[in-house]
Design goal:
Layout (H helix, E strand, L loop, with lengths): L11 H30 L13 E6 L7 E7 L3 H10 L3 E4 L23 E10 L6 E9 L7 E9 L3
Antiparallel strand pairs: 1-2, 2-6, 3-4, 4-5, 5-6
Amino acid sequence: MAISTSPRRLPGWVLIAGMIVALLIAGIIMATVLRPIYNLVFPGKASAPIPPGAVELEYKEPSRFSDGEWLYGSDMPGCEVVQFYIKQGSTCKIAPLACGETNQALAGGIGETANSLQTIATCEGTRAAVVASHSWLVDISGGYNDEYPTRFRVYLFKERD
């Protein structure tokens, strides 16, 4: 009786299936870990969302109040600017009757009712990231008699270490 000295080999399909399973597991782990690592290495620039067509009118250096302050002008009605910020995830406090509402809840498709200079709303929002978390505060006013009837001041706050 002869004893075989050659080691047993796994069939090729078992090796290929094992490699595919290992690649799938590695892909799942990388998808979970890669984004935070990317944010850590490339944190990106902190910025607040700005409605399309808005024009920067003024910029102030960081102050004791905020890390940056911008004044923008827009030909959009102020209530549409408010709707833009709500769609961006901001929480807005709307001045009574500023957008044709008796309460401070914003409904879709409403327009401005006053023709004089007025404060329309104040909106707050946040973007959370691994390293570059930041928030913003936006004061929206309307009723200006020039090419930009709506103006809004954006204050940017970066997370402190």
